[in-house]
Amino acid sequence: MCGNNMSAPLPAIVPAARKATAAVIFLHGLGDTGHGWSEALAGIKSPHVKYICPHAPVMPVSLNMNMAMPSWFDIIGLSPDSQEDEAGIKKAAENVKALIDQEVKNGIPSNRIILGGFSQGGALSLYTALTTQQKLAGVVALSCWLPLRASFPQGPISGVNKEIAVLQCHGDCDPLVPLMFGSLTVEKLKSMINPANVTFRTYSGMMHSSCIEEMMDVKQFIDKHLPPVD
């Protein structure tokens, strides 16, 4: 597995227009890079927020006949009962926690950081938020699912993020990660964290992609949970 040792290039960053007092760390989907999402986030940015879009390492992906591509962890299949890359998911979550720690060192407290992602990146952001001891401001989970869901206890989690705010979004015409995955994920989330803090939005006609309406909902969520402090 030479792919896991390759260091990924430095994240694409949209700096805050003034002193950064909050941050959004956003994880792209399979086969993508952080650049497209950094451009999308630049379109909805707030002046006090720094946006960090890391690039996944390149590794062979089972789903794509072992072709190497940017991937946070291996994906073996796309059905709900497919085997999952448990070791890879946990390692990727540790890497995301290290990114959060880096921002804390830079002077942004973890409770002023929103973690987000699209598809595989959204899955990783959900898993990381539910397993970390870093208190976060919220999670933006776009067109995704909760990985290793059987590893979570039945009922509410006891961690620091049991009251975390989650914005989960999904297109109703998604052929890759069907809307059903999103619906199952939101039900599981509501059993684990305060259900009043979980928002599920669906978009008519949207496939495995994003749309302006969704980005406006993301902006509203970020502005609400990362308000200016000065």
How would you explain this protein's 3D organization?
The chain has helices at 34-42, 86-105, 120-131, 179-192, 212-225; strands at 12-14, 22-27, 49-53, 58-61, 67-70, 113-118, 138-142, 166-171, 198-203. 30% of the residues lie in helices and 20% in strands. Strands 1-3-2-6-7-8-9 form a 7-stranded mixed sheet, sandwiched between helices. Strands 4-5 form a two-stranded antiparallel sheet. With 230 residues, it is of the alpha/beta class. It is built from 5 helices and 9 strands, in the order ββαβββαβαββαβα. The chain has one domain (12-225): Rossmann fold. α2 crosses α3. β8, α4 (179-192) and β9 (198-203) form a beta-alpha-beta unit. Homodimer. Belongs to the AB hydrolase superfamily. AB hydrolase 2 family. It is an enzyme of class 3 (hydrolase). Keywords: Acetylation, Cell membrane, Cytoplasm, Endoplasmic reticulum, Fatty acid metabolism, Hydrolase, Lipid metabolism, Membrane, Nucleus.
